Amino acid sequence: MKINTKTQRQLKIQNGLFYVLMIGLVILLAQLSLKTNTQMDWTSNQRHSLSKTTTTFLKQLDKPITIQVFVSEGNEFKPALTTLLNRYKSHQPELTIHYIDPDFSPDIVRELNIQQQGEMVISLGEQQQHVFDLSEQSLTNALIAVSREQDKWLVFIEGHGERQPDHQANFNMSTWTTTLKQKGFKTKTLNLVQHQQIPRNTAAVVIASPEKPWLPGEITLLKDYLAAGGNLLWLTEPSDNRPLAALAEHLGLDILPGTLIDPNTELLGIPDPQFALITDYADHPIGQATSSVTLFPKVSAMTPMTESSHWQYQALLSTPANVWSDSDPGPLAQYQAGDDTAGPLNIGYLLTAKQSQQDRQQRVIVIGDGDFLSNSFIGNAANLELGLAIMNWLAEDDNLIAIPVKTTVDKQLELDKMASLFIGLGFLVVLPASLLLIGLSLWWYRRQQ
């Protein structure tokens, strides 16, 4: 190609246009990078990003919540705190976050009773929650707790052998109620003989598996509470002598005799067929918040007696068709036509009633088992998720659902003795011997040159 003055001019113009376009492209990319913030979490359980339930809650949050973070400059916790809070801020810009150096703010530290580096105080008006760790679960629970519009008191009836909300025995419910308190609920036990009135600020009354009969006056107090639009969770049990038969009649429910027998438990390695496995939930916020199977030991089934002009019934927990209610249960129980009730059966019902004067919906849940929320069994499958969803619904906080725990996927490598011996000998004997042999070979080769 012959280069002349015209060709040189064309090449200079082309080079100039190339540099102008390249500079323009760099400027556009810089502007794009400043205006966009896209992150991708490729970890197996998305542990470097917020869960979907947290992000949904943050988008619905419309209250001026303040987060005070007490951490010194240069402290090892500050980068992790900043990273976690930036994730929350990206989904809810209205959150106000203040980083406070406790070394230079002793008055605030004493006023708020700060105990450690990295402690966070979540505030909304007069409500406060302290967060002591860097988990998403703890921080979101605190945000949920302070965002509740009013105190949510759960009143546990006692005096008839009920499960206790604060006792740690296997039969009782301290694990469940501790989690409820983390979500902002407050609990109180109430003996209706000693206190003949249910407090007006009660979000829901809980009757957890009574073993002794109620007095007629106590049943009257409970009926008056329901007549005033109160919400109720009643956990009953299989029994030949039902202590609250009058309540079942008042609610229009027929609790079937006998205990459920579920042959499907054997497929999961549970030898006792008196454990019922539930995977069929109502198309309802409670069912949607329960992510997997729930386990119910020794549960009774129930059905509405007749159609009620007051209550609307919806089955919450339904069994498979091959489950039955056995009048004489045991490890080798067999279905007996005429004596037993064939499935599918319902072991839990939602009852609702419109309160026209209060412009709200009265809510009642009846479940034929209380063991699933006891300390012994609440850790099984999705029992805790179901228990939290039930109370959020009864307290009329439909949007506040359980926040899953972010955990690292198990990467543990298990080796038998032979594999461990092989690896040990390989690193301690074979590898050093091989390196020594290679070194001697190189030395001998060079010496022969």
Descriptive report:
The protein has 449 residues and is an alpha/beta fold. The protein folds into two domains: 52-145, Glutaredoxin (3-Layer(aba) Sandwich), CATH 3.40.30.10; 151-394, Class I glutamine amidotransferase (GATase) domain (Rossmann fold). The protein is 33% helix and 21% strand. The protein has eleven helices and 19 strands. The protein has helices spanning 5-35, 52-60, 78-91, 106-112, 136-147, 174-182, 216-227, 245-251, 285-288, 383-394, 417-448; strands spanning 66-70, 96-100, 119-124, 127-131, 152-158, 185-191, 202-208, 232-235, 253-255, 259-261, 275-278, 280-281, 294-297, 302-304, 312-318, 324-326, 341-342, 346-355, 360-367.
Keywords:
449 residues, alpha/beta, Glutaredoxin, Rossmann fold, 2 domains, eight-stranded mixed sheet, four-stranded mixed sheet, 11 helices, 33% helix
Counting H and I runs of at least 4 residues, what is the number of helices? 11
User: CATH superfamily name of the largest domain?
Assistant: Class I glutamine amidotransferase (GATase) domain
Strand order of the largest sheet: 6-5-7-8-19-18-15-12
What's the architecture of the largest domain, going by CATH?
3-Layer(aba) Sandwich
Radius of gyration: 32 Å
Helix and strand string, N-terminal first?
HHEHEHEEHEHEEHEHEEEEHEEEEEEEHH
Taking all residues together, what is the mean pLDDT? 86
Total tally of structural domains:
2
Q: Approximately how much beta-strand content do the residues carry?
A: 15-25%
Task: Give the strand tally.
Answer: 19
**CATH top level class name of the largest domain:** Alpha Beta
Structural class: alpha/beta
Helicity range: 25-40%
Distance between the termini: 56 Å
- The parts where pLDDT drops under 50 for at least 5 residues are none
The major sheet is characterized as: 8 strands, mixed
Give the overall form: extended
Give the oligomer, counting copies of the same chain as homo and different chains as hetero.
single chain
CATH topology of the largest domain: Rossmann fold
